[in-house]
Design brief:
With 407 residues, the chain is α+β, with helices and mostly antiparallel strands. Helix content is 44%, strand content 10%. It binds protoporphyrin IX containing FE.
């Protein structure tokens, strides 16, 4: 299955993945053979209709990674193991009725979060981070802001202490990017999460962890722990990238220039446009075929791995017939997935509040900010999975810190 396969690594993902997806579709069709790190074969589902088919049929296209027909050739130190794990008993790899119960446990625990309190936490941490840079007249809105914010807020909702935030950020970034520090990152997260679960068992509080431990569906501490790991990893990085990609759009595109001076409506527009055009979660691993089947004219063998090409499907010419915007208030994109394993709705709301609040705070606090480098000098992290900037340097008129006194 390797003859016309495209490597899912390399510099094309740094700059213009949209073009690469268009070329893949043109040359290989809407379901394409790809090669992962180490030449491991998989299918990338690029078509909107095909992706709908895959995510809408969790029995034929299962989340059960044990089905994979490549396990015999996967080395123990394969860098993608934390992402495409075997026998990881988390919500991601659970199927059927047990998955539905698990999804309900996660959704209920998140849904019980008071949206006003969530907004207050997001605002408080955002202000703290801006306080640390506002007197200097320059900042990197990725490294000093977006990458530090969602994890702070999520950690607060889950029950972590604020001091643990930076360590968790580094570990998460290493893990989700699937490079050489991925396994060390995962191990740091497991240790921190295990300690938090033990603490909350001993002294429950009004937080996500305590609510999940109190769930009556009979999940073990280990299972709750695994899901919390997923909720932290799946929650932090894409939300940080949603913030960064939206701020980049607002700073580089004239259509949004006016909103830098207070038009809040455009924040929502920029965020929605990013989900269509520059989505944080570009590709997801994955689904495994539970039997031989056909998809997009391809013969898929039982046990083959299918990767969900969310960005490719969002820009599928079959649904984007005018070649331009389906954006506006339209949210029929695939950026949060689809079907039983999609991002739980309360998680999407949490992400939205964190991202919107953080963008509004930075616009409020640094109203005359401007890019400090030419737009084409901005670079992306080298990952085909999550799309985000390495830096977003801005300049602004220095302003005094608030020190906790938001007007
Ligand atoms: C911009 C922010 C986010 C994006 C783009 C995003 C995207 C996604 C996508 C595409 C999936 C589907 C994966 C699949 O189909 O296999 C997913 C699943 C998931 N997300 Fe999110 N997510 C975001 C934020 C969050 C947040 C803040 C949380 C938690 C607080 C979260 C928790 C989850 C969980 C638990 C799943 C697994 C669902 C399951 O397998 O049943 N996500 N997310």
């Amino acid at each position: 299955m390797t003859t016309d396969a495209v490597p899912l690594t390399g510099s094309s993902f740094l700059s213009e993945p949209a073009r690469l997806y268009r070329e893949m579709r043109r040359d290989h069709g809407s379901v394409t053979r790809v090669l992962l790190d180490g030449g491991v074969p998989a299918w990338l589902v690029l078509g909107y209709r095909e992706l709908h088919q895959v995510t809408g049929d969790p029995v034929l296209f299962s989340r059960d990674s044990d089905l994979w027909n490549q396990w015999d050739s996967i080395p123990g130190d394969w860098p993608l193991l934390p992402m495409i794990g075997r026998k990881q008993p988390s919500i991601l790899y659970t199927v059927g009725e047990r998955h539905r119960q698990r999804s309900a446990m996660v959704s209920d625990a998140l849904e019980a979060t008071d949206p006003f309190e969530l907004r207050r936490h997001a605002e408080r941490f955002a202000d703290e981070l801006i306080d640390a840079v506002c007197t200097r007249g320059e900042a990197d809105l990725i490294g000093q802001y977006a990458m530090l914010l969602p994890v702070r807020v999520l950690a607060r909702l889950y029950g972590f202490s604020d001091e643990e935030g930076p360590g968790l950020v580094t570990a998460l970034n290493d893990m989700v990017d699937g490079q050489e520090r991925a396994l060390a990152g995962q191990s740091h997260l497991v240790t921190s999460m295990t300690a938090l679960v033990a603490d909350r068992k001993a002294a429950p509080g009004d937080d996500v962890v305590s609510r999940m431990l109190a769930n009556r569906s009979g999940f073990t501490d280990e299972e709750v722990m695994q899901d919390l790991m997923v909720m932290l990893a799946a929650g932090h990085q894409p939300t940080a990238d949603w913030i960064g990609n939206s701020l980049r759009l607002m700073l580089t595109d004239d259509r949004f220039a006016a909103s830098l001076f207070g038009g809040r409506h455009s924040v929502a527009e920029a965020m929605n446009e990013v989900l269509w055009e520059d989505t944080p979660t570009q590709n997801v691993a994955g689904r495994w075929a539970s039997r031989d089947t056909h998809l997009g004219g391809r013969h898929i063998r039982a046990g083959d791995l299918l990767l969900l090409g969310l960005q490719a499907a969002n820009s599928d010419p079959q649904v984007r017939t005018d070649g331009a915007s389906l954006t506006g208030g339209n949210n029929a994109h695939f950026s949060f997935g689809h079907g039983e394993h999609r991002c739980p709705f309360p998680a999407q709301e949490v992400a939205e509040v964190i991202a919107r609040t953080s963008i509004e705070v930075v616009l409020d606090r640094l109203p005359d900010m401007d890019l400090a480098v030419p737009a084409d000098a901005l670079t992306r992290r080298p990952s085909p999975w999550l799309r985000g900037l390495t830096e977003l340097p801005v300049r602004f008129t220095p302003t005094p810190a608030l020190g906790g006194d938001r007007p």
